[in-house]
């Protein structure tokens, strides 16, 4: 079951990063500007962000299996339509449909895995999830470059239909029917909260994306959505004080372990996306590599995370999160610091080793942190916790990309920009180190009567 869920979760990440690589190609095909075609990716991201709070409520109302199958069908419909797009407007609309489907699937991956694992196996299963989170952003550009090099751009979306159809059939077979007996029924939908929280987060993400595109926060394209997003989120804060069943209860943050976990994941995501954004530019501009070669040189980041996260997650179920997370954060900080010493003439073997260190270190603190998050939450709050984690991860990624873009744009050359980006990454990881002692301690002894998790 876990393998099938991870396959579905990988679809959205791969499709999003593949489409980002094709921006220039799509602009040429449709005869439009890069800023216009960029809305195909921005619209996808905003739809994902706006849908996540609804998923929190719907998973208890309709059940995880039904919602998973529905989200996968919606994503496949958007993928097929995007592959058949006839102009830029239709492509943007269908990418938004894809985003709504991914907004159902992405938090459901965490919810379904956490419920299947239980608190004593949370680290192990979140480590497996980390393989997807680590490899997806790295493999996407490589796969996108390979598709564009040999096939039509339409196959970037049509291949998702083929893989997604297999994932849907497998899910139909292996994901168990929802046991509604004694499960939360999913009360009345908090419509007001949903109308404030989803668009509020989406507006802030849009503002950060526009900050990167416009080269600063002072542009009206960034200030307008930022103001709207902050107003909506403040309104949601006031709404939760009056609501008996908010879509996401802000009292979750009264739990010190939960707050530390989502903070570490958000800051760690910012540091990791700094690498994913800055390193390809360095390899292309300083070493003269093409897009595909730069993507291949990025694989040590994802490979390091894919190696470390399952191992660290499994160990954290026995040893706790703090020691593993501290060691991982120290390794990631030292590896990021190594990039602040890189020059245009530095042999690539050293940058590859430093990138592997960043990936290994990030994996060693991410999987235990995710596992500890689910150990701090009672089962009825797993859906809300997953949604908070995913929304803050989206926000951290958008903020990281915006900051990295500003650093690079204001630097004199690509090497100076790389140094600035990695000093930013070091600062984020130092804050992560300060937050790690707030994580929960060693887990309680495991209940030997628990059923094993199915990994088919």
From TrEMBL:
SUPFAM superfamilies: MFS general substrate transporter. The chain crosses the membrane at residues 29-55, 67-86, 92-113, 125-147, 153-171, 191-212, 218-237, 258-279, 291-312, 324-342, 348-367, 388-408, 420-439. It comes from the Bacteria. Pfam families: MFS_1 (PF07690). It is a multi-pass membrane protein. One of its GO terms (cellular component) is plasma membrane. One of its GO terms (molecular function) is transmembrane transporter activity. It is found in: Cell membrane. Gene3D superfamilies: MFS general substrate transporter like domains (1.20.1250.20), Multidrug resistance protein D (1.20.1720.10). Residues 1-446 form the Major facilitator superfamily (MFS) profile domain. Residues 1-19 form the signal peptide. The keyword Iron does not apply. Keywords: Cell membrane, Membrane, Signal, Transmembrane, Transmembrane helix, Transport. This is Drug resistance transporter, EmrB/QacA subfamily.
